[in-house]
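Reopening this one. Same input as before:
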Amino acid sequence: MALVEQYSDSGLCVITLNNSEAGNVLNIQSMEEFHKALRASLKDGKARVILLRSNGDNFCLGMDLKMLQETEGRNSLAKKAVALYTRLLSLIYKSPKPVISLIQGNVKAGGMGLACTCDIVIASDNSTFEFSEIFFGLIPANVMPFLYSLRIQPQKLRYLVLTGKKLSAAEAKGLDLVDEVFSGPEMEKGIKSIIKNLLRASPEALAEAKLFTRKLSGKSMEKSISMARKKLLGLIRDPDVMNAIKSFNSGEFPSWFEKFRPEKPLV
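Same output, byte for byte:
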């Protein structure tokens, strides 16, 4: 059985973690399949948005503990697992295409990295989120660089890591780990609305926005203002941008505008 499945539909590439019954735990096989699917999605010229979801109530419960136990005395296996995981998070974070995670059910430990490193995190109102590594002697070291001050305030992240507190979807949204929470009946409509907006936007502008926010991280206000001025002037000089502005002012759709009419349900 494939642990990760993928298909494209109306400008959207859907990646499904396909072993929810076993927690969609992260082992060498699942991470290699996930890496392959993510790479294919990034290379797919027709796919402009990537959606990450699960096939059941467990989105991802983190690293496969049996695999971790097997790494005892096998340093090469541990290195491979850690490298695969951090590579996945980096691919999501640096992706020029927007990546959305659709959370239904439980997310723990390493699953928090997969979910919350995404650009947009959508959760059902019955979802739960938990940094559980502390209970078996670890810390979410690989996850923290992608969340620390980017998604969540440093002290709040420290509190969640130290206590292993289980958060409801509403609590996670209050801490900015989650962007939108929908009830079951509202989920399909809600996520389609977000994807429709993304497909109305310029793919180049979306990629530029992601890259620019990364570059702003840690910069002083003076440096940020200087970077912003240079970036905006460069975009204004772009002929494609000017043509899009002309189209918008004349009531026409720009060339990149794409309607979202998926053949399959997303939830």
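So the earlier flakiness isn't reproducible anymore. For the record, Residues 75-94 form the longest helix (20 residues).
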